[in-house]
Design brief:
The chain is 35% helix and 28% strand. It has 288 residues and is an alpha+beta fold. The strands form 2 sheets. Strands 1-2-5-4-3-12 form a 6-stranded antiparallel beta barrel. A 6-stranded antiparallel beta barrel has the order 6-7-8-11-10-9. Helix 2 runs antiparallel to helix 3. It is elongated. About 2% of the residues have low confidence. This is Cell shape-determining protein MreC.
């Protein structure tokens, strides 16, 4: 079995040797007298070696050419792969740019309905902790922003409270978000009109709390009711959404209800905000 395999693997070489040997015999044997011519025999042997040498030479030349061609093909493949990666990056950037343009277009359309001078801004830095104490926007005092100005945003067709300006620099401002435990907003339930005070829960994963809602309101409050600004704190204009009721709590010895509110704005994916100047109620005017 092994012997047959050995011969099978080398069948081409053995066939070549047999052909060369047969050619040699035909050349050196006189077919008429069956006599061997020494000169012809020497020439035939030399020719056989020349043919073999030429074959070996051609083999190595073709091998070298094949190696060179493979290197060229590999270089072309690498170049094409790099171009493909560049095209994929360009396509990804194009998709991201289109998405950003769509968000900005939506923001522009919605802000045109505002009754106050407004300054669209982009978030450029966030508190990395889950407590989310503040974030920074790319507009500052040179753009007309000052401390305590309200900040809103648009998500899924809703205009919602984001927070207020905590401090300003010439080109940037820091925002105190609604979800911070240090943020308070005068609020009311949209349907029943009962009022209260919303306080941040202290982090992005904590619900905000609406306090000081009279117990008489319990029968009129439903899960999912919208909570909005009341406009009684001189910072936030009225009728801006804050969130939805998720639970109602009360204690026997306390005179008020405590509502757990889910913010209307998802702060984990907030990118653009709008700063309002409620002291300048000029409809349609936007600071760019």
């Amino acid at each position: 079995m092994n012997e047959n395999g050995f011969l099978f693997k080398r069948r081409r070489g053995l066939t070549l040797l047999a052909a060369l040997f047969l050619s040699l015999v035909i050349l050196v044997v006189d077919t008429k007298s069956f006599s061997i011519n020494p000169a012809q025999f020497g020439y035939s042997v030399l020719s056989t070696f020349q043919i073999g040498f030429a074959g070996v030479k051609n083999f190595f030349r073709e091998t070298a050419n094949s190696i060179t061609e493979l290197k060229m093909l590999k270089s072309e493949y690498e170049a094409l792969r790099e171009k493909m990666e560049d095209y994929q990056l360009i396509q990804r950037d194009l998709v991201n740019l289109r998405s950003e343009n769509e968000r900005l277009r939506t923001l522009l359309e919605l802000t045109e309905e505002l009754d106050y001078r407004h300054i669209p801004s982009r978030i450029i830095a966030k508190d990395p902790s889950a407590y989310f104490h503040s974030f920074t926007i790319n507009k500052g005092s040179r753009d007309g922003i000052s401390r305590d100005m309200p900040v809103i945003a648009y998500q899924q067709g809703f205009q919602g409270v984001v927070g207020k300006i905590l401090e300003t620099g010439p080109f940037t401002s820091r925002v105190l978000p609604l979800i911070s435990a240090n943020c308070y907003v005068s609020s009311r339930l949209q349907n029943s009109r009962f009022e209260g005070l919303v306080q941040g829960g202290g982090g992005i994963h904590h619900p905000i709390i609406m306090r000081y809602v009279v117990k008489a309101a319990r029968e009129e409050i439903q899960f999912g009711d919208l909570v909005e600004t009341s406009g009684l704190d001189s910072i936030y204009p009225p009728d801006i959404f804050i969130g939805r009721v998720r639970s109602i709590g009360s204690k026997e010895w306390e005179p008020d209800l405590e509502l757990s509110i889910e913010p209307i704005i998802d702060f984990s994916r907030l990118e653009y905000v709008v700063v309002l100047d409620i002291q300048s109620p000029t409809s349609g005017e936007t600071s760019k």
